[in-house]
Amino acid sequence: MPDTTTLIALLASRSARRGTFTLASGKTSTLYIDARLTTMSPEGLALIGPLSLEIMRAHEWRADSVGGLTLGADPIAYAISYASTATEFPVRAFTVRKEAKSHGTGKVIEGPFQSGDRVVIIEDVITTGGSAARAVEAVSAAGGKPVGVLALVDREEGGREALVASTGLPVVSIVRASEIVARMPP
């Protein structure tokens, strides 16, 4: 498998901070992980795409497309799609809007997603699982067939388990928050 150790080091040095923070879920935490500081970097993209494809293969998730709720899922989905170009089964990337556009076609899902697609839902950081659950709901409503949820980071606060319970889908994370914390400077 590609190098998860380097990815953990990048997340620990670039994306993780200690302090007191209010998370998107509304929870308060002493650890903040802004995964975008890693996922939007060249090094992060180069690691995340191949690692994600390897995990998808290991779980036999034959997806036509990948995506999740904007903005956290976007660079991860794009990295996966790009990394898949030289494979036997290229994967398309899409974005799920937080709300439908009020103009044009009024789409909730942007990009080359197609009804009937087998989909891996992408999440950057799972805390409660709410963002990924919203993406599962939007994809299902648009005729997609979610086969699993792939998260970059599981905060290990029960979100993965809640997501499994609410969607019935397998949920896999590339990295756990405890692995990041172990690599953070004191």
Structural class: alpha/beta
Mass-distribution shape: globular
Order of the strands making up the biggest sheet: 5-4-3-6-7-8
* Tally of separate helices: 7
The residue ranges in which pLDDT falls below 50 over 5 or more consecutive positions are none
Question: How much is the average pLDDT?
Answer: 94
Overview of this protein structure:
By secondary structure, the chain is α/β, with parallel strands linked by helices. The protein has a domain at 49-176: 3-Layer(aba) Sandwich (Rossmann fold). Helix content is 38%, strand content 27%. It has seven helices and eight strands, in the order αββααβαβββαβαβα. A six-stranded mixed β-sheet has the order 5-4-3-6-7-8, sandwiched between helices. A two-stranded antiparallel ribbon has the order 1-2. The longest helix is centred in the first third of the chain and has 17 residues, at 42-58. It is globular and about 50 Å long. 44% of the residues are buried. The model has no long low-confidence stretch (mean pLDDT 94).
Distinctive features:
186 residues, alpha/beta, Rossmann fold, six-stranded mixed sheet, 7 helices, 27% strand
